[in-house]
Amino acid sequence: MHAKIHPHEPELSRRVVVDDKLSNSSVTALTVWRKSLVFSCNGFTVFDSSGNLVFRVDNYASDLKDEIVLMDAAGMALLTIRRKSWLSLQNQWKGFLGEFRDGKKPLFVVRRVTSLLIPTKTLAEVYMCSSAKRKGKPQFDYRVEGYYAKRSFTILNSLNKVVAEVKPKQVRSEITLGGDVFNLTVNPGYDQAFVMGLIVVLDQMMPS
């Protein structure tokens, strides 16, 4: 497991790979259940289109927690998500590769976007800690647009290319399963663990 940057890509938002096996060459469809498999514990359980367990989050027992771990099906830590500080004026979270330890550098930072003056659908901006800042270009590497409470939002890179989309889960066209079960579609070349890590952050920034 390692973080990898593809330097030959022309995109400003370079693609993060938490694990090579989690970045497919085709569109990946996942079902996200906003519930842990562990009894009386909040979290997430994520399945692929064949019903196989892909990711799990079951290490927090309240709506808000300072540290959350995204694991694979076997329980190995892929990402550790940590709140920057309760004292910070901005709602920010940092993502670390694997298990967190003191002195470890973050992989990315997510900042909630709030604007009292200008209406915006942008929920959050993502800053990759390895990215070089370019003059005259957007400072963020990814952004999230849409409505988290409705489980309807899109993750885009800095070139406005769609990375992943979340939509409510429907069993039939007229039946929606509710906010605790939703579809996650990840486009080719983007790491599913990174995308799922962003969803975990959004769930903490905008609990519902």
UniProtKB/TrEMBL annotation:
Q: Which domain of life is it from?
A: Eukaryota
Q: Could you tell me which Pfam families the record lists for this protein?
A: LOR
Q: Where does the record locate the signal sequence feature?
A: none
Gene3D superfamilies tied to this protein: LURP1-related
Q: Which family does it belong to?
A: Belongs to the LOR family.
Protein name according to UniProt: Tubby C-terminal domain-containing protein
